[in-house]
Request: fold
Amino acid sequence: MAKKDHVSETPATQLLKANKVAFTEHPYEYLEHGGAQHSAAVLGFDPFTVVKTLIMQDQDAKPLVVLMHGNRKVSTKNLARQIGAKSVEPCAPEVANRHSGYLVGGTSPFGTRKTMPVYIESTILDLPRICINGGRRGYLVGIAPNVCVQLLGAKPVQCALEE
Reply:
């Protein structure tokens, strides 16, 4: 009997299972600084449907999560304006790790250590299915995008920039 690629549970997959969310598992060979573009290429997915989980902070160093298309960047100016912040910037990797409980490159918006506000690029919600980090480097889960709104209370924003 062939062994299926099974990935051990993460806080993210535990949360998804506890909420009876159907998801598919997509392990891949992790590449340092490869990002969503690399995982999309390896798995044969459109990078537009592979969603990055970015840990950022506002001017008061309050953390927040931004979910963005794998082939787009975040306009921190537009994001700050839409969420009523003076400024938004990415957290340093060690700070992001502390807030999320995950290692950068394996950050999932699900099952984070701290509860943080979550913002999702609105066009992600138009997709039939997305792949998002499952809580470990080299591991994506496929879900319906509305799960981010239902489980995380993700608020739609428009802050995508072409890479």
Notes: The CA atoms of residues 47 and 71 lie 6 Å apart.
